[in-house]
Every structure is written in structure tokens, then in C-alpha cells.
Structure to design on (231 residues):
């Protein structure tokens, strides 16, 4: 197996390449203004994971499946059903709900709680917002908090899943800001954090530097869009 890598595609979009060679897109929205041009047209994809139904998280899901063909989509049961109605090509397995785990070719996806809203632009109900813990083939676990404020039961996520890396929003306004994210690190017991959902628009004013000042003892892996970290 090779080392896994996580590539930030701007906003809350990520490309995760697993040790077993699987390519996973999390909350893909390639039309975000920070997404590098060379990442907008993916050449392959083995699975897509989506935290909630807002357009800045599901924006490119249908297009990926139209180009690359049917593939597993891991999302709340209502959201996966809605995506299929929109034309997403995927399997017939219903999406899970919080606490549920789906395995895709050796990679495990578990939905966790999140505190946020979730609906499509047309007002369609797309289930509740969720976080996702992804366990790779080598046992390494990455927690994508999705869009959320900090909440006390992040302690449970840390206790049950012990994520090696936490991907946390820090922009504020719609999600946690750096102050809340620093508390989230403490609750999760996270020693390594990748910040996201900041800088896309002026409203998302939180910065990695603020998080670094507040989250003492935590490795904050702030990368530019298009850059990767080794997991």
C-alpha cells in the first residue's frame, strides 16, 4: 500500500486517495472560486461522500457520475434519494443514517452527528446534516465534520472513532469559527486538523492562523487549494 493523501479543492471539497488506490471525493463542488482548474474535470472516482444537501457541498456530484459512470454515493438516506432524482448514477443501496456504516471496497464510511441545516436550493428535504468518519484500508481514520457548530457530543466521536485527522470548518457565519474549532479539537482529542470552509467568500472570515493561536498543541495543516497532505 502507498501513503494516503488528502487534497483540498477549495471551500469544503476534498479529494482523498486511499492507501489501496481508491479515489474518493468528499463534498465535491468544483465550481467554487478556489478550486484549481486542473481539478475540475476528474479522471476517475471510486466513491463520493456528501455531508449534507446544500449546493456548495453537492454541486458536482451529478456531473461526476454522468462523466465517469455509476458509483457508490455515501450520503444520508434522504439525500442519496434526492441525488438519484437529480440524475446521479449510483447503486440501489439506500443511503445510511447517523451511526450507520457503509463499506466500499475496503474503505468504511460512518455518518455522525452535525448541527447544521440541510436542504436543496429548491427547498427539497435532504435529511439532516451529518459528519463522516472515513476509515481507510490501513485503519487510519479521517473525520470530516461537515458544516457544523461545535457541540459537546464531539467527545463521543473522539471516544468511539479516535480520528487521526479532523477536517473542520473555520470560516464562521455559516459554521464554526476558529474559536469554536479550537474547542472542537479539544473535545475530539484531535492532534492533527485540516481547516476548510474559509476564505471562499468575504463572509467566511476565519483563518488558520487564528486557529493555530487558539488550538495549542494541535498540528494545523493549512494548505492552499490544490495542495495535498500525506495521511
Amino acid at each position: 500500500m502507498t501513503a494516503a493523501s488528502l487534497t483540498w479543492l477549495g471551500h469544503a471539497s476534498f479529494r482523498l486517495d486511499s492507501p489501496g488506490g481508491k479515489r474518493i471525493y468528499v463534498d465535491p463542488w468544483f465550481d467554487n472560486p478556489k478550486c484549481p482548474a486542473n481539478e475540475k474535470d476528474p479522471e476517475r472516482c471510486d466513491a463520493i461522500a456528501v455531508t449534507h444537501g446544500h449546493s456548495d457541498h453537492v454541486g458536482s456530484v451529478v456531473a461526476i457520475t454522468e462523466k465517469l459512470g455509476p458509483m457508490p454515493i455515501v450520503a444520508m438516506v434522504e439525500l442519496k434519494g434526492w441525488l438519484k432524482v437529480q440524475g446521479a448514477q449510483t447503486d440501489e443501496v439506500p443511503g445510511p443514517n447517523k451511526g450507520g456504516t457503509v463499506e466500499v471496497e475496503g474503505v468504511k464510511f460512518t455518518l455522525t452527528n452535525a448541527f447544521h441545516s440541510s436542504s436543496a436550493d429548491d427547498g427539497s428535504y435532504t435529511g439532516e446534516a451529518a459528519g463522516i468518519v472515513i476509515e481507510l484500508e490501513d485503519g487510519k481514520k479521517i473525520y470530516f465534520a461537515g458544516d457544523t457548530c461545535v457541540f459537546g457530543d464531539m467527545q463521543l466521536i473522539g471516544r468511539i472513532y479516535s480520528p487521526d485527522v479532523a477536517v473542520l470548518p473555520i470560516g464562521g457565519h455559516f459554521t464554526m469559527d476558529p474559536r469554536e474549532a479550537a474547542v472542537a479539537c479539544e473535545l475530539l482529542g484531535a492532534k492533527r486538523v485540516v481547516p476548510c470552509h474559509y476564505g471562499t467568500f468575504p463572509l467566511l472570515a476565519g483563518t488558520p492562523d487564528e486557529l493555530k493561536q487558539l488550538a495549542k498543541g494541535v498540528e494545523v495543516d493549512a494548505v492552499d487549494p490544490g495542495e495535498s497532505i500525506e495521511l
User: Anything to note?
Assistant: The helical segments are 55-58, 61-68, 77-85, 154-161, 178-188, 208-214. The chain is about 20% helix and 25% strand. The CA atoms of residues 114 and 130 lie 5 Å apart. The radius of gyration is 16 Å.
